């Protein structure tokens, strides 16, 4: 089956050669302007299908508030702000994303989520958030982000650096399926095309392995089957305490 999978993966890599060329010459960059609009529209469907999962995940956010001050949240790869509705009232939020074109849609989400205080939007990759100070937030949120960062361990190191001692990293990520499944087969075969239409998204990552070795003192992680397209049905959900 592995040879069969590798053969079809190669075929799809050949099919994406025009897209690879567009990326090399810079034409693919225009898609990054359209991608935020696409994600903004998709986020409504995703939130509807994953509503119960997100509510459960974020239900104990307030427990990580330090003292009498507001809960301080940093969201990595905030996109269009699809998580805002699940944050507790009065929290302060800093958002980062490497794509500056998301800010327009972020403002749309803020307009209907006035229960939180938005502090700033930082254009930065998950691997390099030097604009955010060490030990400066109570919670870091990372949902559907580790699938597309260039370096997962480095991104988790940055999250760990920014969290105060006792703070928590919350995550919700689609991951690679069980190797014995047909989902695993199609994830690998279709990955070359998925990468370009998902703006660098990879569905073949075993992200949980990186979380397990990221140096957090406590890790609460579950594997779930999300009610979504078979390519992104396998998910991990949970949080890690610094």
Automatic annotation (TrEMBL):
Protein encoded by which gene: METTL7A
Question: Per its UniProt entry, which superkingdom is the organism in?
Answer: Eukaryota
Query: What SUPFAM superfamilies does UniProt report for this protein, alphabetically?
Result: S-adenosyl-L-methionine-dependent methyltransferases (SSF53335)
Task: Extract the Pfam families matched here.
Answer: Methyltransf_11
The segment(s) forming the Methyltransferase type domain are 74-171
Membrane-crossing ranges are 6-31
Alphabetized InterPro entries for the sequence = Methyltransf_11, SAM-dependent_MTases_sf, Thiol_S-MT
Sorted alphabetically, which keywords does the UniProt record give?
Membrane, Transmembrane, Transmembrane helix
- Its source organism is Oncorhynchus tshawytscha
Q: Which GO terms describe its molecular function?
A: S-adenosylmethionine-dependent methyltransferase activity
Protein name in UniProt:
Methyltransferase type 11 domain-containing protein
Upper classification of the organism: Eukaryota, Metazoa, Chordata, Craniata, Vertebrata
Q: Does the keyword Iron apply?
A: no
